[in-house]
Amino acid sequence: MMIRKLVLLLGVALLPSAALAQMQALPASKTPQAVPTAQADEGGLTGSVTDESEWQDLGIAIPAFPTDQPVPTAAEGGNTEALGRNVARVVYNDLKNNGLFKPVGPDALPGIAYAEVVAPAFQGWRARSAEMLVQGFVKGAPDGRLTVGCYLYDVQLGSELVRQGYVVKPEEWRRAAHKCADMVYSRLSGESPFFDSKIAYIAETGPKDHRRKQLAIMDSDGANHRFITNGQATALTPRYSPDYSKIVYLSYLDGRPRIYVYDIGTGRQNLVTEGKGPTFAPRWSPDGRYILYSMAIAGNTDIYRVPATGGESMRLTNTPGINVGGSYSPDGSKIVFESDRSGSQQVYVMNADGSNQKRISFFGGRAATPEWSPRGDQIAFTHLGGNFRIAVMDPSGGNMRFLTDSWQDEAPTWSPNGRIVQFFRTERNSGKTGIWQVDLTGRNERKLNTPVDGSDPAWGPVLP
């Protein structure tokens, strides 16, 4: 089958083999029934796009995904009919929470018949002021796997824009929903997808003066949460490898800092290096070959580079004071970091070999924890000036602007497509910490639900 027909006939199979699975053809309805008006509680279908570019407001309707026949499944909901509504809810929440759209979801819309998936009742949707329509289906197979179809229609034109299908194990049904949302987001925005991704962070419990800090991971929307470490050693600053197979993090046990690489597939972890002094902020190089970290020796803190498999470290900075951080540019040619060599914490950039170090932040206040965008066009950082705020600037230090204005927001990390910044927020009185996200407009914030307090978030790349 020719590759150019992929979006029409084939779906991306979310299986370990990454093989493609053909979607079964859906029956077309000869006379699609008009969609009746429902008692919507979400304010109608008036979309709102809050991006700096020239977005058009879009009314996006996402009804529940029907099934050909309800069959039991091990997935959430118990059968394919209930699961179809849950899949649509995940798609709806993904598109709503990214800050670009305000869609209407399945709980405020009438259901559709299975045959309508490929033959939408466009006239009825036009009457509801819908401009775009996301429909799909869920089918069960005898082997227990699920097929999830996803279609995007232009209601005004009465035409299909794109479709995909996914064959998943029951426990992976959320991946199909995220892939569907990614398809819609990319087709309408022209941006790269990011919903089918994972987040690593540090789960915190216990009193403020004796916190238990564990490495944990979850989906981009906070679902499928699990702890990786048991909390016997303090875990800090995790980061996903570029190929998503590993997580590097800092571990402190009995005051001894060690950098470990955790293999997600096998569950094994390997020691990369053991610091001779306080150690900070391990970061991957874009090719996954090296890890940057900072280490304090004899009063000075410098940035080092070590092979990801372990070995001899190379010092990249050698100045009095504190040099911390290290975030590579997407092409691997430069590193952004923080240093107090000028008398206060500021942001600097250097070549990947440590040469040509220069300061780029010259605005009021201090600057810390810089992180280069995967798009290469901006650097996010923590601005310290009275309170801690998340800010962004271009790689030359210009066009600085704030994205948040709370009491203590810090440690930004980017979504895979560079459109959302994730960070952790500390509450003023309680000291409780949580994982938050904000889009590049600074107007759309959301808190991720985690079972315990959270800090040091890290957003991984889109799953293969």
UniProtKB/TrEMBL annotation:
Q: Pfam families from the xrefs?
A: PD40 (PF07676), TolB_N (PF04052), Tricorn_N (PF26549)
Its subcellular locations are: Periplasm
Q: Which InterPro entries match?
A: 6-blade_b-propeller_TolB-like, Tol-Pal_TolB, TolB_N, WD40
Signal sequence interval, chain numbering = 1-21
Chain ranges of the TolB N-terminal domain: 72-160
> What are the entry keywords?
Cell cycle, Cell division, Periplasm, Signal
Q: Superkingdom of this entry's organism?
A: Bacteria
Query: Coiled-coil annotation: which residues?
Result: none
Q: What is its main location?
A: periplasm
Per the similarity annotation, which family is this?
Belongs to the TolB family.
Q: How the protein assembles, per its UniProt entry? A: The Tol-Pal system is composed of five core proteins: the inner membrane proteins TolA, TolQ and TolR, the periplasmic protein TolB and the outer membrane protein Pal. They form a network linking the inner and outer membranes and the peptidoglycan layer.
What functional role does this protein have?
Part of the Tol-Pal system, which plays a role in outer membrane invagination during cell division and is important for maintaining outer membrane integrity.
Protein name as annotated: Tol-Pal system protein TolB
Q: Which organism is it from?
A: Novosphingobium cyanobacteriorum
Q: What is the lineage of its organism?
A: Bacteria, Pseudomonadati, Pseudomonadota, Alphaproteobacteria, Sphingomonadales
